[in-house]
Amino acid sequence: MKTVFFDKDIPRILATKAAAKIMKPLLYTGLNAVKYKKDIPDPPLPTENWVRVRNIACGLCGTDISFFKATTGTDSALEPIPTAKRTYLGHENVGRVIEIGSKVTKFKVGDRVTIREYMSSCNNKDIQPLCKYCEEGNYNFCLNYGEPSPHKLPDTGAGWSDAFIATENTLSKVFDELTDEQAVMIEPTCVSVHSVTVDPPKKGEKILVMGCGTIGLGVVQAVKIIQPECEIWVLERVKTKQQFALKLGADHILQGEPYQAAADATNASKVYTGMNNNKMFFGGFDRIYDCIGGNWSNTTALRMLRPRGTLMKIGHHMRSITIDETPIWWHELKLIGVDAHGMEEWDNRKLYTFDLVQEWIRDGIYKTEGFVTHHFKLDDYKSAMRLALENPPDVIKIVLDC
Description:
This protein is α/β, with parallel strands linked by helices.
């Protein structure tokens, strides 16, 4: 098996962090805590409800970049949770089942599948009985996140591998009507769609989407599908992404100085400026989707909301951040965090985000054309990472061909 993984080696992680801050070329050397092994023995199926998948392709996600730069902080809530020695990169994948255990009922050899439960859950560790959240399909809230598997698991691999093993319950079948390139877009589309369905916008809302990468562009599209009678502005510096956002349904680009532009767009008060260019105004957007994350975007989003407005917090960097919390209590704001995907309620049905999204892509409701902009071979993953970190204007979704 060939696979890319994050090695939980503290000295190497510290060196990677330092390189990301002061000597970026070192990230592409053997110093990095992210490793690529080409000669790992193919692991056996741990029990009879596991399958082996041969990967076709897998997208590059912000989470993969976070591992490559070792951005997880020791002050993060993730830090005290026990983890395996290796974390395998890649979860926006499409692959084909090449082996099944005798108790597998959901798949047959030859089926195309994609990883649904990438984060730690009862299913991907094969823990029985399932906790209440995994039982209901909201696996990202798993109560056994920090518990070990009852099996001695081998190197499992993931999306950035030529092949991997997984329990059948962690995978979703890819619809026959979808191309491989559309299938690679299923998981990131699920994040965008779930970010909107978890608290749907209301008719007539003025909405700001901050950041037009893959997730932000998907949010624009999902908002217009779920509530077409709202007005969307996007905050994005790259003109090609601005134009793509307009094509997908955005109504306006937030132009010029952000605070003044937001005040003008929402008919708010004048913008007040204090020391160190500290800005605030009264009024603002009904709802903001922050697809950037970090100190600046969270603080800015909170100040651009109207009283009792809603911040959908999507972007993150797996570490603690510093924000001005004043607008939260001052204007009684609502903050909703978004953790990937889970179980949806749509059209009087309950179904996985993965199934809803595939229906929308299949039926032409949600468009994926234009999202995938670059392809690299798995062996050339460092070049893919370099391009992602340089982030030129023509990059949206990078895909590794496995």
